[in-house]
Amino acid sequence: MSSSHFTSPLYLLSLTLLLQIAIGTNPLFHFCSSSGNFAANGPYEANLNTLMSYLYLTAPLTGFASGSVGQSYNQANGLALCRGDVNTTDCRSCLAEAGSEIRTLCPYNEAAIIWYDECELKYSNLDFFGKIDNENKFYMWNLKNVSDPIYFNENTKELLRKLAEEAYGSPKMYASGELKIGEDEKLYGLVQCTRDLSSIDCKKCIDEAISELPSCCDGKEGGRVMGGSCNARYEIYPFVNA
Predict the structure, then answer these.
(1) In a domain, 11, yes or no
(2) Is the pTM of the predicted complex or chain greater than 0.85?
(3) Hey, what's the signal peptide range on this chain (predicted)?
(4) d(CA 113, CA 55)
């Protein structure tokens, strides 16, 4: 989605403060376009409604869908992405909630994006497909600090870079894994891209997300960079489905 159609500040959010939200049905975060609104019951809204139905029905089958409905200024473009480990039923449930919530939060905005723990939904009146979204981004982190941040940060980078290599060449553009960092400790990670990106741009997007982790999550037990085109996450506990 064209980055100029969203507010650009990076929102720094505490994982601890959002813990209750993250494990419930509420969104992690959202952006509403500030560029313009559409008329109620007009052609753009009709196209957007059709698009939302299409994404809801199609995305759960493979975990991703994108599409456009309408023409010219009334064209609605959108995508839906579910986390790579989420099953069809949970994907559909997440997207149903996302579709309802984003229309409540951004009722007449021409473009919007919303993230949940298990899915992302994004739409715009502009064609954003195949372009890295560098503007719609936020951070989440655990307030607890690790005992040896230098060692921990090095292992975090090692794990996520390994996952990035796996993800950008895979059909789902998703990878998760773990790394042993002590006798009884493991580090868990996940990276994922929206599948409208090329493999090269997926890798570029994930690498950028990984490079931003120190600015938000240096020495923290967990952290995420959540963007419109990709995300990267690490924790000291398992958080994906087996």
Answers:
(1) no
(2) yes
(3) 1-24
(4) 14
